[in-house]
Amino acid sequence: MSVEIRVPQLPESVADATLVAWRKQPGESVGRDENLADLETDKVMLEVPAPVSGVLREIKVTDGSTVKSGDVLAIIEEGDAAVAKSGAAGPAARRVIEENALPPGSIAGSAPRGRVTKANAVQAADAAAAVKAAATAKAPAAPAKAPAAAPASVPPASAPVAASSPGAAGVPAAGVAPRSGRAEQRVPMTRLRARIAERLLQAQAAAALLTTFNEVDLGAVQELRARYKENFEAKHGVKLGFMSFFVKAVVEGLKRFPLVNASVENNDIIYHEYFDIGVAVSTDRGLMVPVLRDVDALSFAAIEQGIAQFASRARSGSITLEDLTGGTFSITNGGTFGSLMSTPIVNAPQSAILGMHKIQDRAMVVKGQIVVRPMMYVALTYDHRIIDGREAVQFLAAVKDYLEDPSRLLLGV
């Protein structure tokens, strides 16, 4: 029995998707729930699972096509009998299979007892070639090799070319071959990258963004981590990082300055009486900000476990739209890439974002003495429409205080 493979129901806020790549080709056997293709939306990657076991008979949508919920993508012939039909091949069919490097046993045979005929092999080879041609057509063309200059046009050594001659700036002299390594490639943005660009521009255009800075001495946090990191990892199965300290400090700061946890909707200010913190994760496809819910009720271990799970799922492409929606405040850590200072952009409709940076030993004056301390610059970008400089500066100072004396986070004071 033939079964249609359709685009799964897309999330409510997603109109369509792009078919990125097929994981199976016509003639290959598939198992129930096995991933057949990857779909990309402007927010997440989705998989297309096989609803039944059988053989993939026909692909109806090529890579790069835009699809909507319910569109037919492919046809599967269901059942063990369909798989069994991918059987032995005659000499002529085997020659076609070998010449075209087709997967052995992946071709459905139409002859008695499932034997693969030459016509079956040729049809499979044509289908594989069509898929390969479609993929090649979407790849950027390789730059043509620059032709060698004709020997007769090379000026003699006794006749140097004047540097001030017309067109000398940036233009090769007559008879001189252009330098290699000046190729260009034009690659379309992925849907996620285009969406990120759109949201960042919207955030800058719709909000009055301002950034304030401070610096934090992380010596106490480093000492606490060094003292307990082995026991912490042994008990909870996750490393004790810096992010859990920052998340905890941010929540305490948000409790003291609720405006920083608020958002703007038309002419209203919405005060959120909960703390859903987005933690930025860098992936090959772009930046994602999964959200930890009700962080004020989470332990250090639960925060670290949640961040680790989100990072793994974001990089594997299994993050869901629900993981990325909501959030009342965000944290981003450019320090993992060596950034010393930056001005992060607010993740709309939130009103503020905290930027962490590289920890660097610097000479500081402590109680009249010059000492070396592990310092980090922190930045708070905020929407000046609802958050005044006073609240922003005091919030950042509160975060600094909690990080420089992390015992306060444990005691709740």
And the CATH topology of the largest domain?
Answer: Chloramphenicol Acetyltransferase
Number of helical segments with 4 or more residues: 10
Q: How many strands?
A: 19
pLDDT < 50 stretches: 142-169
Anisotropy-based shape: elongated
Task: Estimate the mean pLDDT confidence.
Answer: 83
What is the domain tally?
2
What's the SSE pattern?
EEEEEEEEHHHHEHHEEEEEEHHEEEEHH
Beta-strand content bin: 15-25%
Spatial separation of the terminal alpha carbons? 67 Å
Largest sheet, in brief, is: 7 strands, mixed
Q: Helix amount, in percent?
A: 25-40%
Mind telling me which CATH architecture of the largest domain this is?
Answer: 2-Layer Sandwich
The CATH superfamily of the largest domain bears the name Chloramphenicol acetyltransferase-like domain
Cα-based radius of gyration, to the nearest Å:
30 Å
Briefly note the structural class of the backbone: alpha+beta
- Name the CATH class of the largest domain: Alpha Beta
